Amino acid sequence: MTLAEQESLSLRLEQCYTGVLHDVMRARGMSRFTLPPELRPILPERSMAGPAFTVSGRPCPGVDPHETLVAWTGLLSKSKSGHIWISQPNDHTVAHMGELSGETLLLRGLRGVVTDGFIRDTDFLMKMGLQVWGRGFTPRDIVGYWMPFEVNTPICIGEVEIHPGDFIMGDRDGCLVIPERDCAEITKQAEESIGTENLIRKAILNGVDPQEAYLKYGMF
Q1: Cross-strand partners of 134
Q2: How far, in Å, CA of 96 to CA of 184, rounded?
Q3: Predicted structure pTM score
């Protein structure tokens, strides 16, 4: 997929919503594509979509602090414009995104962050407008404790396997992972479903019985 195609799909997905995308994917027989509900956004009013830049790491208590920061800044340098930074830190002790890292990712053109861990500097992240998803908050940083392990390799969050380039879409209701090979078709189907839902909504508002509306349009 070209960069232009990725950008186009990201913008189209941001105009959809996770509920309709979920229903389309379920109807296609897909499963295990919804990230754990404990992951929440700091800017719930904003949707976020883009291809995945995957990151994994693990705790290394006692690691040299300088080595930690060299590895972390090197990781930031590998991030890809137009992508969603999504990480499996294998850790629920320290923060895996903060202010300076967020500023760096914004400057590099990333569309958002998802971490299966904690974040910090939340007020700063909100003020800069970077959408970040995480499990919670802590002021403790990674220095002397945690190291990145791999980038752009498959990771798992909950029951969901995420490959580099898979699309991430999140809104107030939750966050989904859409396989890259299926994303264009799923996006098209979601857009068509939104059009049908608009017809159902109009029918309901005009007094049509909900069961009649369902039987006519085949969805509700």
Answers
A1: 40
A2: 31
A3: 0.89
Residue 13, sorted as left (phi over 0), alpha (psi -120 to 50) or beta, turns out to be alpha
Query: What are the pLDDT tens digits along the chain (220 aa)?
Result: 788 899 999 999 999 999 999 999 999 999 999 999 999 999 999 999 999 999 999 999 999 999 999 999 999 999 999 999 999 999 999 999 999 999 999 999 999 999 999 999 999 999 999 999 999 999 999 999 999 999 999 999 999 999 999 999 999 999 999 999 999 999 999 998 887 776 677 767 767 677 876 777 666 6
- The residue count of the chain comes to 220
Query: Residue 198 corresponds to which amino acid?
Result: N
- The number of angstroms, rounded, from the C-alpha of 57 to the middle of its chain's C-alpha atoms is 18
Cα separations in angstroms, 83 against 29, 46, 54: 27, 16, 10
Q: List, in order of start, the domains of the chain with CATH numbers.
A: 3-180 (3.50.30.40)
Distances (CA, A) of 189 to 16, 24, 132, 145, 192: 11, 7, 27, 45, 5
